[in-house]
Amino acid sequence: MTHISADSPEMSVEDFEELARNAPETVTLEFINGKLRVKPVPDGDHGSIFMWLLRQCMQHRPDLDLYPEHGLVIEGYRKGRCRPDGTLVPSGHFAGHGEWSSPEGVLMTAEITSHDYDTERRDRVEKRDGYARAEIPVYLLVDRDSHTVVVHSEPKEGFYHLVRTYGYGETAELPHPVNITLDTEKLKDYAG
Question: What pTM was estimated for this model as a whole?
Answer without folding.
Answer: 0.78
